[in-house]
Structures are given as structure tokens and as C-alpha cells.
Amino acid sequence: MSIDRGLRDELLAAAKQARTRAYTPYSGFQVGCALLGEDGQIYMGCNIENAAYGPTNCAERTALFSAIAAGQLPRSFQAIAVVGDTNEPITPCGVCRQVMVELCHPDMPVYLSNLHGQQHETTVAALLPGAFGLKM
Ligand SMILES: O=c1ccn([C@H]2C[C@H](O)[C@@H](CO)O2)c(=O)[nH]1
Ligand SMILES: [Zn+2]
């Protein structure tokens, strides 16, 4: 499972654009995400924080939940890209990794990057070894 370089760059650019929509009055740390649907449509996500902190939604989950709510089927996605202003390419939190395992194919490519243009490619399964699931 892989997508071509042009599509990957388009996905990373969309994640960077989504990042500008982040609502982060508490951390000031903006994250953007772009999820590529089966049909080539791109679903964008940003982190959305909350005064109670706990309800905060990461960029990755915003994109995944938006796509599912828009009618995309679980495990139908082609790739996901995440961008944050980090020294090394951003790395998703444990909650988002668990949600990716639930809603994405294990071999789906995950493109992690930062604003310096550094990139790291991994997969959903590699991000969460030993993931919990009911069918164990
Ligand atoms: O991969 C990540 C890591 C962090 N955040 C958000 C959550 C919170 O709003 C802020 C600081 O953790 O960044 C994301 O959206 N995605
Ligand atoms: Zn997260």
C-alpha cells in the first residue's frame, strides 16, 4: 500500500493548510492533518482545544472522524499526513494511534512531517505494536 509522490506532497500541503485552522488558545501548538479517501478526496483536520483540557481533539482524530461522518468507510483510506511545528517530524499521541488502528488498514502509510520539511514515513501497525482489539 503506497501512494505516488505527487499525491503524498499534495496530502502534506493539505495538512499544512489544515494546521492554520487549529483552535489552540491553551497550548498554542497547532497541528494539521490530511486524510486521503478511497476516491481521492482529502479530509482535513486540526486540533481543537477546550478549557477543560480533556475534551481536546487532536488533528488526526478530527480528520478521521470528519471523514467517517461524511460517509467514508472504515479502513477504506489510502494515507494520512500530519504536520506540526516540531524539531523532528511530529509523532501522533497514543489515543490517535489507537483510533487509527480502529479506522485504518494496518499497512496504510502515515506521513509525519514538520515545518522544516522533514518527513518520516511509517504505517498504522508500526505506530502501535500490540494494539488492543476485541478479536485477540
Ligand atoms: O499528534 C498530535 C500531537 C498533539 N496534538 C495536539 C493536542 C493539543 O491540542 C496540542 C498539544 O498537545 O497538540 C495533535 O493534534 N496531534
Ligand atoms: Zn492525538
UniProtKB/TrEMBL annotation:
InterPro entries: APOBEC/CMP_deaminase_Zn-bd (IPR016192), CMP_dCMP_dom (IPR002125), Cyt/Deoxycyt_deaminase (IPR050202), Cyt_deam_tetra (IPR006262), Cytidine_deaminase-like (IPR016193). Residues 6-135 form the CMP/dCMP-type deaminase domain. Pfam families: dCMP_cyt_deam_1. GO terms for molecular function: cytidine deaminase activity. Its cofactor is Zn(2+). Its EC number is 3.5.4.5. It catalyses: 2'-deoxycytidine + H2O + H(+) = 2'-deoxyuridine + NH4(+); cytidine + H2O + H(+) = uridine + NH4(+). Signal peptide: none annotated. It is an enzyme of class 3 (hydrolase). Keywords: Hydrolase, Metal-binding, Zinc. The keyword Hydrolase applies. CDD domains: cytidine_deaminase. This enzyme scavenges exogenous and endogenous cytidine and 2'-deoxycytidine for UMP synthesis. Belongs to the cytidine and deoxycytidylate deaminase family. This is Cytidine deaminase. It comes from Marinicrinis sediminis.
